[in-house]
Amino acid sequence: MARMTSRGPVLGIAALYFLVPVAASLWFTIAGADGIGFEVYAKGLGSDGLTTSLLRSVSIGLATVALGLLLMVPTVVAVALRLPKLRRVVEILCMMPLVVPPIALVAGVATVLSWQQDLAATPLYGTFQALINRDFPLILVIVYTVMSLPFLYRSLDAGLRSVDLRTLVEAARSLGASRTQTLLQVIAPNLRQAVMGGAVLSLAMVLGEYSVASVLGFEPFAVWMVNVGDSEAQLSVAAAMLSLLFTWGLLLLLTALAGGRTRSSSRSSSRSRSRSRSRKQRKTA
Amino acid sequence: MTVPVQLKQLRREFGSTVALDGLDLDIAPGELVALLGPSGCGKTTALRIIAGFESADGGELLMDGQDVTSVPAHRRDIGMVFQSYSLFPNMTAAENVAYGLRVRGVSSGERAARAAELLDLVGLPGRGGHYPHQLSGGQQQRVALARALAIRPRVLLLDEPLSALDAKVRLTLREEIRRIQLELGITTVFVTHDQEEALSMADRVAVMRDGRLEQCAAPSELYDRPATPFVAEFVGTMNRVPGVVRDGSVVEVFGRRLPVHGDAVLGAGTEVDVLLRPEGFGVAPGGDAVVRVATFLGATTRLHVATASGLAVKVDVPSWEANGLTPGASCTVRPHEKPVLVAERAVPVG
Predict the structure, then answer these.
(1) B residues 69-128 near A, CB within 8 Å?
(2) H helices of chain B, where?
(3) Counting C-beta atoms within 10 Å of the first and last residue's C-beta, which end of chain B has fewer, N or C?
(4) Which residues of chain A make contact with B131, given a CB cutoff of 8 A?
(5) How far is the C-alpha of A101 from the C-alpha of A103, rounded, in Å?
(6) Within a 13 Å sphere around the CA of B335, how many CA atoms are in the beta-carbon half?
(7) CA angle B268, B274, B275 (to 5 degrees)
(8) Which has more confidence, B345 or A155?
(9) Could you state, in order of their start, the residue ranges of all structural domains in chain A?
């Protein structure tokens, strides 16, 4: 009971901290000289810029998640199974984007992209053109993949620690599964929650990222919102509110996909691992 | 008749540690062989080499006469049960059992039928729809056994499958494993550090030490006629008492001359340790020895006796003969007239 009482104020303050800006933004978008109305939302939803930039951000986000997972899942599995000594190295490398400011990263990327003029006569020119395609800038996918490494790594690493990976792999192999079958049918399903966790964080990061895209001159959703805000403040805030709802919906969907059997699975694995740990401790004792 | 599993001079090193040092072992069809030994003796390494999870640095591994040393684990047709239950958490018990068949492309109907058959065999009918976390440890290990058997492996490997279970379940499950193994006639290699498990389940027990095979024999032979002092002391309880060799094959201990087991010829007058089981003594009331502790074990009572020379020996006597042999009682201890094993005299500590 005492615990409930002490939780109340903390939860109340947290709720206020979160809800007041949202409520203020909502009020700003619906309150006008003629009273309360949702015209600005109707305008926003009908705007080409919003749909185009939002879809661009989502597609960049999904591509980032796909590329990140393609890189990180085999890497963390291989490190856990074959190269445990490299774990610290991989961890440090994956955490680097947290300590390198995005603006420093983008300065380097901009320098590289500026080489394209010198490469005009080479086949690499086409590659550069693809990288800076305005409708789907691949360069943003690459930079965002690097920036999402800390989220993906942390999430996958936690997921791997909750299952007895080595034994599961050996069990699958002894039953005749190839490496690919083991990865797809045994490891991946048991990492689903971790994969989804990393994906959700990465997607949220991409949808809200502004500085890299802005400096490189692209216009995903966050950049469009700021640009619109210069001339139509209400529309910009309404777009932010819509994007908030959209992002919540997307994250809830991903979280729901990560739930179900996997939740109970990881509970069982953790239990089995903790039993195994206590057995080892007993043995050591 | 081909030998299902043959280990020939297997060698494996981990850095400067020699895990297997020329291990030779033949396992006959339908036989259950237990690899027994202290921690670090190489038993698990040997099992993992048979499974294909470790590679040997030297020697050969033959299965049904074919060299499989370089065959990868998933092509060896081996069923394995691990110490940690190792069930796939994302699959039901039936899906776990059927997984090996699934990767072999067996139809779903056939898989389901085989899974149900195997779950019946291991005493879990109707549990096919349960996820691992909904099963107890013992049930999970039964499912793991069913999963290993579902692919009809040519060899079944058991890596300390009972050590994670509580005592009562362990006892029941070891009987179940043996029943199923005999019923299917499947060649089985079983790693354990629990000698009671090894002696009660195996057709033969291979005692290992420092990567080498000390002795591989039937449990009774291992107990009654250990080939080396290490085996004698590792298997069961053993007393080490000082004795003197009187001629090449007779040793004097407790004032009695006993034949030495085996072909060893020792120089007369050599001081040795004589290895005697607790049941290898007779005890009579009265004398210069004193009973220190008497522990009732059911059919037998174990006495801890201190002799006049200060030697402490453990003696098992039938409980009905132990009346009066209570702590503090004086008694006489004499070894039975049976061949004994001798070892180099151990240097007293301290």
Answers:
(1) 72-80, 82-90, 99-100, 103-104
(2) 43-51, 93-103, 108-121, 137-150, 167-184, 195-201, 219-224, 229-234
(3) C
(4) 261, 264-265, 268
(5) 5
(6) 25
(7) 150
(8) A155
(9) 1-32, 51-284
* pTM to 2 decimal places: 0.77
- Put simply, the chain B residues between 123 and 182 with a CB less than 8 A from any chain A CB are 131-133, 137, 140, 144, 147-148, 151, 157, 163-164
pLDDT tens for each residue of B158-198: 999 998 888 888 888 999 999 999 999 999 999 998 888 99
Concatenated DSSP letters of B156-180: EEEESTTTTS-HHHHHHHHHHHHHH
Closest residue to A261, CB basis, from B83, B90, B137: B90
For residue B168, report the phi and psi dihedrals to the nearest 5 degrees: -70, -45
Give the gyration radius of chain A's Cα atoms: 23
Task: Determine contact, residues B137/B84, Cβ cutoff 8 Å.
Answer: no
Average pLDDT for chain B: 90
Whether B325 contacts B317, CB under 8 Å: yes
Is the domain spanning B5-232 CATH 3.40.50.2020? The answer is: no
A/B interface, count of CB pairs below 8 Å:
101
Residue B162, phi then psi, degrees to nearest 5 = -105, -5
More confident residue, B212 or A262: B212
Would the CB atoms of B89 and A190 count as touching at under 8 Å? yes
CA distance B54 to chain A (A): 11
Cβ contacts of B50 on chain A, cutoff 8 Å: none
User: CA A4 from chain center: how many Å?
Assistant: 33
- For the beta carbon of residue B117, count every other beta carbon within 10 angstroms: 14
Chain A residues with CB under 8 Å of B99 CB are 172, 175, 177, 185
For this complex, say whether ipTM is above 0.90: no
Distance CA A54, CA A62 (A): 12
pLDDT in tens, A6-31: 788 999 999 999 899 999 998 988 88
The answer to whether B62 touches B50, Cβ cutoff 8 Å, is no
Q: Which long-range contacts (CB under 8 A, 24 or more apart) does A244-252 make?
A: A244/A22, A246/A54, A247/A204, A247/A207, A247/A208, A250/A58, A250/A203, A251/A200, A251/A203, A251/A204
Chain CA centroid to CA B340, Å: 22
User: How many C-beta atoms surround the C-beta of residue B247 within 10 A?
Assistant: 13
The domain defined by A51-284 carries CATH number 3.40.50.620: no
Helix (H) or strand (E) holding B260, with range, is none
What are the extents of the domains in chain B? 5-232, 238-344
